[in-house]
């Protein structure tokens, strides 16, 4: 039976692979960008670099990591760190977009802008998270267990709230978060935001 465990250094390649294989609204994003590694550089690797103690994985019977949750207790501070330290360090390794527009270019612009404006939901919901499971683990309660572990850690730290933002096209995510206690928040076009008070 799979098991939930804390993130260990050395899990990063598996987390990057899971991120890639779920990045297209929950489906495999391999080949959608000219740099498959960009997804992980934005949405999972900075979190285990900054907050390895707030990262958990689901490991299968044959010792494969097939799911994870990563997050931060303080979105505003995290985004400032991302813009000041993380992105300048990893951006030179990222190939430039093959065309001036498109999804790759949009993600590069998004990365470059992180930390330059106050995060939208962070005042009331200062923490945020990213969670991804490969299809083999979905629908078995592992997402709920990961979220519960993260929420317990946030409560231990006295964090008053947590939020997340999913793509509007990721219908599975939009259905999942209310089931584990999140409330829909006002959202930008193309997005679905959710929040939960912890105090």
Describe the protein's architecture and organization.
- It contains seven helices and seven strands.
- It has 199 residues and is α+β, with helices and mostly antiparallel strands.
- It has one domain: Aminopeptidase, CATH 3.40.630.
- Strands 1-2-3-4-5-7-6 form a seven-stranded mixed β-sheet, sandwiched between helices.
- A hairpin with a 5-residue loop joins strand 2 (55-59) and strand 3 (65-72).
- The longest helix has 16 residues, at 75-90.
- The radius of gyration is 16 Å and the shape is globular.
CATH superfamily: Gcn5-related N-acetyltransferase (GNAT)
Unreliable stretches, pLDDT < 50, 5 or more residues? none
- Strand order across the biggest sheet? 1-2-3-4-5-7-6
Decide which structural class fits the backbone: alpha+beta
What's this, in brief?
By secondary structure, the protein is an alpha+beta fold. It has seven helices and seven strands; from the N terminus they run E-H-H-H-E-E-H-H-E-H-E-H-E-E.
